[in-house]
């Protein structure tokens, strides 16, 4: 059996006396979506920064394809096939879709200092890469800022896939989107999964996570609240745990007692 694309075991991170993350374990397999859920301050951002090479973990073990790793930079993570699409997307709104698709890696023609952008090839590559993800844009010359939030997310996903990502980390991709646009993004998350990528979906919304997720890691105040395969938990229970079901039940009981 192949080793997981990513495996973290009892991973932790501290900043001085502040414990940002502790005892977190999960795996990311090829062709699966691992969902990391939690409210603000739960530790989601710290975990993805460790996976993406922004920060080093202080405790536990982080393996990629079975090999122990300790990244020094996001470049190290990219070199191992781990691409991260952050919430702000790192796009240039006034630049065309195809230029944003490459962002510094544009194809060129010519030699030495006389090299010029190969606009025709760049647009063709972009159009084909988007089409393979099922994204049909009318004109890849249009500014990326004219696209909807969901379409911009999809361009960023297609870009990561095209440049060889084996693991795709998505930081709250549906947070600022309406219902329809969120559905569009989730469709492309499923397409990336079906193409064999391992996907890490960071979200605070169980209704977005459950339809596409294969595994669910719940975090609270930097610690794991629970880790489940899809067969082990249904949407109602996932939502209850995300909402702090036990705490809400205790509060409801307390309020009922106070009324009587």
Automatic annotation (TrEMBL):
Tagged with keyword Methyltransferase: no
Protein origin, superkingdom: Bacteria
Gene Ontology molecular-function annotations: ATP binding; ATP hydrolysis activity
InterPro entries for this protein: AAA+_ATPase (IPR003593), ABC_carbohydrate_import_ATPase (IPR050107), ABC_transporter-like_ATP-bd (IPR003439), ABC_transporter-like_CS (IPR017871), P-loop_NTPase (IPR027417)
Entry keywords, A to Z: ATP-binding, Nucleotide-binding, Sugar transport, Transport
Position of the signal peptide: none
Keyword ATP-binding recorded: yes
Domain ABC transporter stretches: 6-246
Name of the protein in its database record: Simple sugar transport system ATP-binding protein
The species this protein was found in: Amycolatopsis cihanbeyliensis
């Amino acid at each position: 059996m192949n080793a997981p694309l990513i495996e973290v075991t009892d991973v932790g991170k501290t900043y001085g006396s502040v414990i940002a993350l502790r005892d977190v374990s999960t795996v990311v397999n090829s062709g699966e979506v691992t969902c990391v859920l939690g409210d603000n301050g739960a530790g989601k951002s710290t975990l993805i920064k460790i996976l993406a090479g922004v920060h080093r973990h202080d405790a536990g073990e982080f393996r990629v394809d079975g090999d122990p790793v300790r990244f020094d930079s996001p470049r190290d993570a990219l070199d191992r096939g781990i691409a991260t699409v952050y919430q702000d997307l790192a796009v240039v709104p006034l630049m065309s879709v195809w230029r944003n698709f490459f962002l510094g890696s544009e194809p060129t023609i010519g030699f030495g200092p006389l090299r010029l952008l190969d606009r025709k090839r760049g647009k063709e590559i972009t159009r084909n890469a988007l089409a393979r993800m099922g994204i049909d844009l009318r004109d890849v010359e249009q500014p990326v800022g004219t696209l909807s939030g969901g379409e911009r997310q999809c361009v960023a996903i297609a870009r990561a896939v095209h440049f060889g990502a084996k693991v795709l980390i998505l930081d709250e991709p549906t947070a600022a989107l309406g219902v329809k646009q969120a559905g569009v993004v989730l469709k492309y998350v499923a397409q990336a999964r079906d193409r064999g990528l391992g996907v890490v979906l960071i979200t605070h919304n169980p209704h977005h996570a459950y339809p596409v997720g294969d595994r669910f890691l719940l975090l609270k105040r930097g610690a794991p609240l629970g880790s489940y395969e899809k067969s082990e938990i249904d949407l109602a229970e996932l939502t209850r745990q995300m909402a702090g079901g036990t705490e809400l039940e205790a509060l409801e009981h307390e309020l009922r007692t106070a009324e009587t």
